[in-house]
Structures are given as structure tokens and as C-alpha cells.
Write a structure and sequence with these properties.
This protein is α/β, with parallel strands linked by helices and 254 residues long. 42% of the residues lie in helices and 15% in strands. Bound molecules: 2-phosphoglycolic acid (PGA). The site of 2-phosphoglycolic acid has 13 residues, from β8.
Length: 254
């Protein structure tokens, strides 16, 4: 399966830096090939600007857009929110749902995350459903139980494989420079694909090899290759290192 590399800019970037970033990435992929599915998730107001930049550049590979969140309804009186339908309308192929920062700062529950994933799938946008344990949960040996509960409650049970992807992001690895060992990543990814296949099996025929689980948390140019080579790692979700076009291109090439 081709790898997916997603840039999550979080609340960073502006018109000027976005144009510069897009132009560097366009230049790079005008002369380099990759099999990877490349996605950038900027803050909402920058989506049309980036779409324009990418429509106008002659990369050998498409660069897709994604949102960082969506509402569970398709429209209505929800001041400040954005629907998956609107993300689709402005050109997004993906949307991140249930990122740990939204789970902690915006109090999002597994149940809400699942409803957002359902809304995304209905709108024709692929939800990237984020799961992961905190430092304390890992220290207390609860990682697998936490992951299982997040999958049970945040992954729509009747979603077809291929219509959603997961991102395993240990909360303690995000933005910290600390990365689990390769064995730890392998162990959790295997547990995730098994759990997801059980979870959706009642409604779907499941080929375990088609379940996409990205890794996220302190991915950098110097560890991305090793992480992406692991079994059951379908790609990476990159925060901090995706802000520098140069680092992001190096991660994709690795
Ligand atoms: P990081 O963030 O790469 O800066 O650790 C990853 C994420 O939050 O998606």
C-alpha cells in the first residue's frame, strides 16, 4: 500500500508563509517522484489559497488538502464551526477528527469524534481518526485498553475499510521530541489493525492489510523512514516538522 504523509499545521501559518511553503513543495515535486499520498491540513482560511497554489503548479504528484476538524452536522446555526460538506466543497479530500488537542482543549469525547467521522464519510471526505494514550495511561499499562475503547467508541462500526483512516498518536509523543521505540509502535499498530478489523467485521468484509493506520508524534526527517518501514504503519501525521517545506519534503522522500 502507498504511504500517506499528512502535514498538520495546527494554528500556524499565514498567507505569506503558505505561498512560500506551497512554492517550495511544488518546486520539489516538479523534479522528484513519490508514491506517497501527500496531504496538507492548514487552518481553514488558508485552504482556498493553498488550493490555488497547487492547482497552478506542475507537480508530478497531486498534493491533497484536508481540514483539521469538522462539525457533525452538514449545516446550521453552529457559530465558528465548519462542516465536512463545506470542506469537500472547497477541495478537501481528508479531515482530521479527534486530534488529542481537540480532545483535551475542546473536550471532545469518543462519541462526538465518531459522529464527526460519520459526517465526513457521508460528505465524501476521508476522516483521519486520531487515537492515542497519555503518558500516565502508558505508565499504568493501560495503552491497549485505552486504544481499544477509543476504537470501539470513535470508529463508526459500519464504515467501510478505505473510507476512513486512523492515526495512532501517543499524546506524550506529540510536540515533545519523544518517540516510542520502533517495537512499541509496531506492537500498538498491530493491536489497532486487529481491533479495527474485529470492530467493523460484523458489517464489512475485512482484509487486514487494507486498514490504514498512520503514526504521529514527533515525526522528523531523521526518524520518518524508519517509522514508515514498520509493519502496519501506513504513513505519518506530521505536526511541527511539516511547517518547514524542506523538512516535509524530506519526510515524504524518506
Ligand atoms: P508533532 O505533532 O509532529 O509536532 O509531534 C503531531 C500531531 O499533533 O499531529
Amino acid at each position: 500500500m502507498n504511504k500517506t504523509v499528512i502535514a498538520n499545521w495546527k494554528m500556524n501559518g499565514n498567507s505569506k508563509t503558505s505561498k512560500e511553503w506551497a512554492s517550495e513543495v511544488c518546486d520539489y515535486f516538479s523534479s522528484h517522484d513519490t508514491d506517497a499520498e501527500i496531504v496538507v491540513c492548514p487552518p481553514f482560511p488558508l485552504l482556498p489559497l493553498l488550493k490555488n497554489c497547487f492547482d497552478g503548479c506542475s507537480t508530478r504528484v497531486p498534493i491533497h488538502l484536508g481540514g483539521q476538524d469538522c462539525h457533525m452536522e452538514s449545516k446550521g446555526a453552529y457559530t465558528g464551526d465548519t462542516s465536512a460538506d463545506l470542506l469537500k466543497d472547497v477541495g478537501c479530500r481528508y479531515v482530521i477528527v479527534g486530534h488529542s488537542e481537540r480532545r483535551s482543549y475542546a473536550g471532545e469525547s469518543n462519541d462526538l469524534v465518531r459522529q464527526k467521522a460519520v459526517a465526513a464519510i457521508k460528505a465524501g471526505v476521508i476522516p483521519v481518526i486520531c487515537i492515542g494514550e497519555t503518558q500516565q495511561q502508558r505508565e499504568e499499562g493501560e495503552t491497549m485498553a485505552v486504544i481499544a475503547r477509543q476504537i470501539n467508541e470513535s470508529v463508526p462500526v459500519d464504515a467501510a475499510i478505505g473510507h476512513f483512516i486512523l492515526a495512532y498518536e501517543p499524546v506524550w509523543a506529540i510536540g515533545s521530541g519523544n518517540v516510542p521505540t520502533m517495537d512499541e509502535i509496531k506492537e500498538v499498530h498491530l493491536a489497532i489493525v486487529k481491533k479495527v478489523s474485529e470492530h467493523v467485521r460484523a458489517k464489512n468484509a475485512v482484509d487486514i492489510a487494507e486498514i490504514s493506520v498512520l503514526y504521529g508524534g514527533s515525526v522528523k526527517p531523521d526518524n520518518a523512514g524508519e517509522i514508515m518501514a514498520l509493519e502496519n504503519v501506513a504513513g505519518v501525521l506530521v505536526g511541527g516538522a511539516s511547517l518547514k517545506a524542506d523538512d516535509f519534503c524530506k519526510i515524504i522522500s524518506s
